[in-house]
Amino acid sequence: MICVDVLIVGGGIAGASLGARLSGAQNVLIIEAEDLCGRHATGRSAAFWQASLGGDTPERQLSLASKPMFDADWPGSDTPLLRARGAVHLTAPGIGEYEELGDLAGEYRPVHLGRDQIDRLIPGLRQQWTGAWYEASCADIEVAAFHNACLRAVRRQGGDVRTDTSFLGARHNGDRWQVDTSNGPIDAKLLVNAAGAWGDEIAKHAGVRPLGLEPLRRTVVQLRVGRTGLKDVPFVTDSHDSFYFKGEGDNSVWVCPLDETRMEPCDAAAEELDVATAIDRFERAVDWPVEAVERKWAGLRTFAPDRGMKFGFDSESPAFFWCVGQGGMGIQTAPAASLLCAKLINGDELPAELAGIDPADFAPRSVRV
Ligand SMILES: Cc1cc2nc3c(=O)[nH]c(=O)nc-3n(C[C@H](O)[C@H](O)[C@H](O)COP(=O)(O)OP(=O)(O)OC[C@H]3O[C@@H](n4cnc5c(N)ncnc54)[C@H](O)[C@@H]3O)c2cc1C
After folding, report:
1. Which atom in ligand 1 lies closest to the alpha carbon of residue 202?
2. The CATH number of the domain covering residues in 87-136+214-301
3. Full-prediction pTM beyond 0.85?
């Protein structure tokens, strides 16, 4: 029987980044049900890092702590993991300011743009927006490179990643877990739940009370438009929370209608209504003629009931560690979140890189008010 210190269920960015932090010091095995580790949320993201995302919450501290780790290409990547893009938060009379910007300071402080400055960044923007807040620090994340670097680090440090291996159930005998998988039994000291939308399913099958996780479907559409020179168009969003888009290729954009549809854990697919909504909101924003839908996809962003990320040992089942509820920020927070989780698992003090972060904010069974 395979015998490990830490068994991580789920090979998405949550499991892979935590595996990269833990392996070496601990004997780590990641099991992934699919034939590839990035099939679900991790392979379907819009791939950006943005300081303001999620507002003034403990997750923002994780985003800010992650930025220098990305800049240092943690955990060892051949290519840079961030590419500068910038974000434009459009404002208009009567629809207020963009509250999520909060009190971002220093290099993350947004600057206000007048209409003439916006026109230089987004030629063809329709007239209803009179101003914008600009976040220069917003960047694209090279998600595949980052995810692969994490998986490589796990293996390089002596850990293992097994795809096509589904977690089926587990019993704790007071000392260790006896785990059933589709590829045979595993004996583990610690069970880590990094199964994204399936997080509550894993808990139930390990005899642990679920958290009430909610997977919400979100759609992205790649449109070919009758305009060129779009590759570096910033991330553009309105302060109504109704759309975002960003340049993809010379004449293509990614557009998201910011949909949130409650789903059971599944292989989510884009629905026609969400695709049509994305196109409609995009056409109301810019005068760029839509020529074709080149690609469309959807993924599940999974939230705890209070929308906080949940990292830590279960207070009712101490050999069970939660790493779930990353919602729409699981990539951009992963470098710091994985460090936080690894320190909690190892029982170490938090390092200077995580200054200001309070693990209690992420305690799985506490509810934020
Ligand atoms: C459309 C969209 C846009 C997004 N854009 C961004 C963005 O721009 N920036 C950002 O930071 N975040 C973004 N996100 C959020 C981000 O993608 C997620 O927070 C993150 O990928 C979650 O990672 P994960 O590893 O928890 O989940 P997943 O990647 O879903 O991984 C969980 C894994 O667990 C596996 N699993 C499930 N059950 C079992 C089992 N029984 N046995 C073994 N394995 C199992 C699954 O197969 C899956 O691979 C976006 C998400 C979506 C859907």
Report:
1. 41
2. 3.30.9.10
3. yes
